[in-house]
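Both lines are quoted verbatim for reference:

——
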Amino acid sequence: MNRRVKNFLARTLPEPFLRAGKEAYDGVRRIPNLPAAYLNPARRDSIARLAALKDRHRGERCFILGNGPSLRQTDLSKLRNEYTFGLNRIYLAFPEMGFETTYYLCVNDLVVEQTSDDIQRLTMPRFVTTRALRYLCPEENLFFLYATYTGAKFQKDIRFRMWEGATVTYMALQTAFYLGFSEVILIGVDHSFASKGKPNETVVSEGDDPNHFNPGYFGKGFRWQLPDLETSEKAYALANETYRAAGRRIIDATIGGKLTIFPKADYGSLF
């Protein structure tokens, strides 16, 4: 559909019709992905094993560790005996933390491609997407999720299609919901980046990384995509609404974080 037709439809059709039409169009575009999403042997095995994880942490709390610079100001030793989700290159902090996160997620194709050896060496339950089958070998404790860039939704059952919401943190929130956690606490989700540019544009790092807790996180020569904060805020709002409707809650305990979607809490007061 060319831009002229899109602009005409946007001016003439009511919002509900536009939304329904876009969802239908996105659904048709996703059809070629369905064989890998539901018929690939590794994916089918993941679906079967994911069933055993449903509600395994019913009524418990967990922490999702973002990778912002504020993580350096956060006493992570307090999390040693907590359930935790680590994202992307959080393993760079493991030596200093003295322990590993309970779970791990990485869904961005560029990150998986460039760190596949690191991900493969991890041993905790790890969640990646079906696109990662190009880089990772199926094994125990490695779960392949079907995730898409379009079709906004909050997936309560991660055996089926998930929306990425422009941030791995949103994927972690959906995963934590499926595992049954009733309280999810965000830390290190600064929601602020020193690097500026067009959202989702792929760039190559020219030196130390100012956007994450470790200067080598996306160090020199690393290819990564600029953040899409607007889309991620829409995703966070959807997560907040879904948790509240289910009698659960998400709390933002990021030190100095710029995200305003979730109720705030002082990190130290949580222990």
Remarks:
- The chain has one domain: 12-270.
- Residues 12-270 form a domain with the sialyltransferase cstii, chain A fold (CATH 3.90.1480).
- The chain is about 30% helix and 15% strand.
- The radius of gyration is 19 Å.
